[in-house]
Diphosphomevalonate decarboxylase (Tribolium castaneum), 325 residues
Amino acid sequence: MKTVTGIAPVNIAVVKYWGKRDEDLILPINDSLSCTLSTDFMCAKTTIMASPTFPTHRFWLNGKESDFNNERLNNCLTEIRKRANPKCGDLLNWKLHICSENNFPTAAGLASSAAGYAALVSTLSALYNVEGDISAIARRGSGSACRSIYGGFVRWNKGAKPGGEDSIACQIASASHWPEMRVLILVVSDDQKKYSSTSGMKQSVLTSELLKHRAEKIVPGRVDEIIKAIKLKNFEAFAKITMQDSNQFHAICLDTYPPCFYMNDVSRMIIELVHAYNDYQGATKVAYTFDAGPNACLYLLQNDVDEVASLINDIFPSNTNPKKH
Ligand code: DP6
């Protein structure tokens, strides 16, 4: 019997991935860029037991047994085994018991699949002593998972090769480059989202003209600009691009037919509050971004955390939504 445990962090995109050019290989139509959070508060944990006596593979997600015959899980396993250290020998034939857990809401638009697949793939790679970049394998579990393989500020290059070998993540800057950067996560709702990211983006690719325009004409410049802002630690530029990209992503969701509504009235109140706060300060102190759900992620610098957190506490008292984390 061999047992390995691994954890992986959540990442929150500031230039969003939305749309695939290959559904099976999970190849995106545009580059994306995110910040990986520290694992102190939010992470996914995977424990894998391999044994010559297990009759079948089994998989548990947050304590509940789930079907092992999940295509994405099996794609990750197949790809990692191709890269296994030859010294693994018989271990490669042993059946696995895999337990995955998140310490935050699953499927509420809080990047749970990203951390989950990153934890799965890094734990599998530890089991089989895989060397080198594993982001392309994590990508086979969930596109955004490839960015959770690295810490700090991470770019996912869409790549050009049909097989996706160059569709990998890379670190732009480490977390220690900009240690004052913070994220506040406002959980507006931890309900399961109505449309998954996977189905939402598929429908957007099929129906949204705005998506094509964004991928071809907007994202390349935006990625260059935000990398420049990160390198120079220019928060105002970083924040403006982050908010514009979140808004454009949700505009694409509205431009999708039939439309996907991920944000709700509380999400929109948060957007208005951030703009009002920044106007009052005479400077861009806070940036919001929303993934495929109503929950807000606010980027800000350490010095402003107390004031912004107390403002949020005043406006949304603790027994009402959003919950503070
Ligand atoms: C809005 O990575 O969850 O969070 O590749 O189909 O698993 P699949 O989608 P997923 O999509 C994430 C979309 C997003 C934006 C982002 O994280 O870049």
In short: Residues 13, 16-18, 26, 32, 113-114, 142-144, 197-198, 291-292 surround DP6 (CB under 6 Å). The chain has one domain: 2-324. The CA atoms of residues 58 and 95 lie 8 Å apart. Residues 2-324 form a domain with the Ribosomal Protein S5; domain 2 fold (CATH 3.30.230.10).
